[in-house]
Amino acid sequence: MIRVLIAEDSPVMQDLLTHVLEADPAIMVAGIAANGREAIEMVKKLSPDILTMDVNMPVINGLEATRIIMRECPLPVIIVSSDYHPQDVEAAFKALQYGAVAVAEKPHSYGALQFEQCAARLVRTVKLMSEIKVVRRTFLSGAAKSNIDLVPAVNLTKQKIQLIAIGASTGGPQALEKILSSLPPDFTIPILILQHITAGFTAGFTDWVRTLCSIPVSIASHDSRILNGKCYIAPEGLHIEVTSDMTFQLHNKPPEHGSRPSVSVLFRSISIALKSNVVAVLLSGMGKDGAVELGYIHANGGITIAQDNESSLIFGMPGEAVKLGSAQYILSSKDIGTFLAKINV
């Protein structure tokens, strides 16, 4: 039985979340906190398996409560937010930096369009995230020790890097924070980020990436040309591919590995279109999306990187790539940023 603590100040939403979660026989609501302070106290008292956290709450808001909980009594925290409130979305992604494991959409009222789909996604997220082993976040200042100097220098004399492609799922935002903040403002190689994300949150995710990145960030569009010095975000609901003339192609063919967009589709197109002139990075996430196709890029002479186990929230996708021999380098999220900054030539 998964014991869930709900942190939510609205009595109506408290009842709705309780109904949605307890409709699954594997889930029990262990308690309800009406503000962030109560959430902190109840986590310590009840020791739930997982916490769903609202963003806007009185006394202590969800963002600050997440920071304190991950420092003092860590457990998996899912931020449950309204996708139509931009300020909530921004705070939700900030909470990921503090250690929250996922962002989920608040279910709409009974009878609302897509209520059942939204409720099912929330239940699925709670069940998956409850299995994650989180660590205490101390938020110490100062740079972490790096092993980047142990990585051989990358010889770019025989290849021109045209694109850095990054695939990520659960735990990806935490890794992206470290990677993107390591890049200098004069970084010229275009970057494409494909992050599996809850429907409706791509615009908020893009705004959050802008706060990390010192280069311009935008959502990729069909037939648009890929420009140097730009960071692109894959749009939701569509596969994205890269062509040999450096344009994006979007389509709605069936999902792969349960996802659309799929990292596998992206990496497969890159292995054909760009050959050796690409750096492909596979970050934290469940499943196998992109792992085999990272190997295609490696076989064609491209530079391939998998996030290491220690810095990954979930070592599924990068772990599968490591198992298959698809990754040329296995690095922490911080070291990936340092690595990419070194190849900006």
Give a written overview of the molecule:
The longest helix has 15 residues, at 115-129. This protein starts with a strand and ends with a helix. It folds into two domains: 2-129, Rossmann fold, CATH 3.40.50; 153-342, Rossmann fold (3-Layer(aba) Sandwich). The chain has eleven helices and 14 strands. Helix 4 (86-97) crosses helix 7 (202-212), helix 8 (263-273) runs parallel beside helix 9 and helix 9 (291-299) packs across helix 10 (316-324). By secondary structure, it is an alpha/beta fold. It is globular. The strands form three sheets. A seven-stranded parallel sheet has the order 8-9-7-6-12-13-14, with helices on both faces. A five-stranded parallel sheet has the order 2-1-3-4-5, with helices on both faces.
Structural category: alpha/beta
| Principal-axis shape | globular
Indicate the CATH topology of the largest domain.
Rossmann fold
Q: Any guess at the CATH architecture of the largest domain?
A: 3-Layer(aba) Sandwich
Domain unit count: 2
Estimate the mean pLDDT confidence.
91
Largest sheet entry: 7 strands, parallel
The strand order across the widest sheet is 8-9-7-6-12-13-14
Helix coverage percent = 25-40%
In short:
This protein is α/β, with parallel strands linked by helices.
